[in-house]
Specification:
This protein has helices at residues 44-52, 74-80, 97-109, 124-140, 156-168, 186-203, 214-220, 238-242, 245-251; strands spanning 4-15, 18-29, 33-37, 59-64, 67-68, 82-84, 174-178, 206-210, 223-228, 231-236. By secondary structure, the chain is α/β, with parallel strands linked by helices. The protein has two domains: 1-81 and 172-262, Rossmann fold, CATH 3.40.50; 91-171, no CATH class. A hairpin with a 2-residue loop joins strand 1 (4-15) and strand 2 (18-29). The structure holds adenosine-5'-diphosphate and magnesium ion.
């Protein structure tokens, strides 16, 4: 059996007595793409928040490379190699693409969130090292034409790519993506799927993908975990999931049909 990068074990999370996650367990094998799917409100974003440290589960454990991380604040989990993007874009809209990636790299790598802006005072050599990595990401994501553009002025699809770049700037071992294709057109969606595959292949980054586009999910995932009302309904390969009767039933009447391609 291959190494596991993430082990989620019986995680339960409640909000004022209402359960968002109920004894959720699943693993992410190192180097794999695992998708977390399920109807709206199923608990997908809550699960990502438990992994990144924004929420603390009532019960259960989460291990990253064998180490329990539940006592660690978000920036320490980021430093260990867990990066994420958000369902709603979270960028500094008034800064350039380059500055967003530079701030992204610094905000978690060395300090807490409040120190994000101190990078402007760092030594030139340190800044050069960071800039080289950031330039690599800009090339990788084909963001060169937008390097000095103010993020808020860019098309939505490009902003989503910048957000992915900001997460990559941390050089993560595990990347958590919350609906990276949401609101994208077909071409942008296919580009994003290609980038996710390339990140996984070229940099061996493990990926946990939350996504409603079933065409993409079934295309690029090694494994799929289905959540329904905060519980794991099924876990398996895309082929197994697509023919699982319980999964099919849970999706009846949902807009993201399991059978629609892109
Ligand atoms: N901060 C919060 N406070 C209260 N309830 C929340 C909070 N975050 C999520 N929930 C609830 O948890 C459930 C799961 O939400 P969420 O994880 O966002 O689902 P999904 O991402 O699958 O659509 C929902 O019922 C939602 O209302
Ligand atoms: Mg969500």
């Amino acid at each position: 059996m291959g190494k596991l990068i993430l082990e989620v074990d019986k995680v339960t999370l409640t909000f004022k007595g209402i359960a968002a996650l109920v004894s959720v367990s699943f693993n992410i094998p190192a180097g794999k793409i695992v998708s977390l799917i399920g109807p709206n409100g199923a608990g997908k974003t809550s699960m990502l928040n438990c992994i990144s440290g924004r929420y603390t589960p009532d019960r259960g454990s989460i291990r990253f490379l064998g180490e329990n991380i539940l006592h660690l604040p978000p920036y320490k989990r980021a430093r260990l190699g867990i990066a994420r993007t958000f369902q709603n874009i979270a960028l500094f809209k008034g800064l350039s693409v380059l500055d967003n990636l530079m701030v992204g790299r610094h905000s978690h790598l060395q300090y807490g969130l409040f120190s994000s802006f101190f990078y402007f005072g760092k030594t030139k050599r340190e800044e050069e090292t960071h800039r080289l990595r950031v330039e690599e990401i800009i090339d990788f994501l084909n963001l060169s034409p937008y390097r000095h553009k103010i993020v808020g002025s860019l098309p939505y699809g490009v902003q989503k790519r910048v957000e992915l770049g900001r997460a990559l700037a941390l050089e993560p071992k595990l990347l958590l993506l919350d609906e990276p294709m949401a609101g994208m057109n077909l071409e942008e969606t296919e580009d994003m799927a290609r980038y996710i595959l390339d990140i996984n292949e070229d940099w061996k980054t493990s990926i946990l993908l939350v996504e409603h586009d079933m065409g993409v999910v079934m295309d690029i995932s090694d494994e799929v975990v289905v959540l329904d009302f905060g519980q794991v309904l099924a876990t398996g390969t895309p082929e197994e999931i697509q023919k699982n009767p319980q999964v099919i039933a849970a999706y009846l009447g949902q807009e993201d049909s399991l059978f629609l391609g892109r």
